[in-house]
Amino acid sequence: MSESGRPHTVVIGAGPAGLTAAYQLAARGAPVTVFEADDVVGGISRTVVRDGWRFDIGGHRFFTKVSAVEALWNEILPEDDFLLRPRMSRIYYQGRLYDYPLRALNALRNLGPREAALAIGSYLYARARPPKDPDANYESWLVARFGWRLYRTFFRTYTEKLWGIPVSEMPADWAAQRVKNLSLSSAIVNAVLPKRNQKEITSLIEEFRYPKYGPGMMWEEAARKAEKMGAGVVLNSAVTAVHRADGRAVAVSVTSASGGRDRVPADQVISSMPMSALLTCMDPPPPAEVLEAANDLRYRDYLTVALVVPQEFGFPDNWIYIHDPGVRVGRIQNYGSWSPYLVKRGRTCLGLEFFVFEGDEMWTMPDQDLIALGTAELETLGLVRPGAVEAGYVVRVPKAYPTYDQFYRRNVDLMRRWLEENTPNVHPVGRNGMHRYNNADHSMLTAMLTVENILDGSGHDVWTVNVEQEYHEEKGAAGATGESRGRGVTGTGRDAPVIPRRDG
Fold this sequence. Notes:
Radius of gyration: 23 Å
Number of helices: 15
Number of strands: 22
Oligomer: single chain
Strand order of the largest sheet: 7-6-16-17-18-15-19
Largest sheet: 7 strands, mixed
Shape: globular
Structural class: alpha/beta
Helix content: 25-40%
């Protein structure tokens, strides 16, 4: 117990989930301390600042169908700190930009008469003679609905860059989540009879809110307000052990950047650290099979090469998807299109996103070599003239995408059961905390429900917070909290492909 006599909660990680938990606990007068290993708050939603330039890591559109999350956003940041931004993304392929989501007339016009005719012919052939098993894998699913030529143009290259595996090895159920509403027929209807501000389909929203200094502004303010209400937010301090006794967690060990180590008592622990790390830092440790499951979780990692260029080389898109197989970059953000407050007068900054594995060739490449590679790829794509890049910066983000391979569900279920039976006062939340491929709003929701469980004994099962098809594809199907009802499916956030593991 804290000095006030009320239970003290330790929150591990100051990303969206961790800070949401801390903010709501502090708002209700509950003692709470947040420990963050990094020197900034926000996690993957932070805003990186280098020499006055601001970088959004991955791009964060503030749009949600969860009313409680939207209300909390508005409580943390005043309306004047939000910009209303137009949503625009396009696909770059062979020197041309295609609308995304796909609009049939735009796509066929860009392809040109000959290629358009071949694409339509390929589409009609696939409809008449689809693959024998169109649900065998993601590739078959796409080919059955678009034909081979449109599949190769608009789906294969980017997907393989993102996940690092051939599309033919990815399951068909991933396709239903990502391109369910992008059949050629619906694309044609949307091109001819577009609706204004289509919020029924998340990918078709035409505008969104955005903190003017980037998403980190939200979490910097959340930390400041939480501290003002009595929370402790301690940076450069990694939780390196969770001590347990008598069937509960009783304390954590915190190691500072200087190497100092402290033991902090805890009545409750809310963890947004990677689930694998949480299990491996337990003291005493879990059984061998649980540790094996923890060490078996996999991730896709990410790095950004941010390049400063004259404003003339900006583009109106928030980002463009690079479907050109001749370059490694998967997506390019224009930070000036997110907010003019992220860039400097007369200049903009283009963020080249590379999807990698921690420790691979690109991850370990020196920053200057990555800047040179990014510069060369921008010039190869014709997006800047030679010599236009004035400066560059590199940001590496480990564990950006929890990987769903054929073993992840078994591993997560095993770890979850062990935690529930042996440390019921340890609560995983958020993207990496639950090894779920979710957005910031649903990371926040898992934290909000966890706080209710701790303070009110509400009994929410945060593992049933589910958005998947309802949240991303259809308006109104999810409840006010974002929970899916009656479908018996668990998980948080966007669904992601179950990627077969090549190493067995």
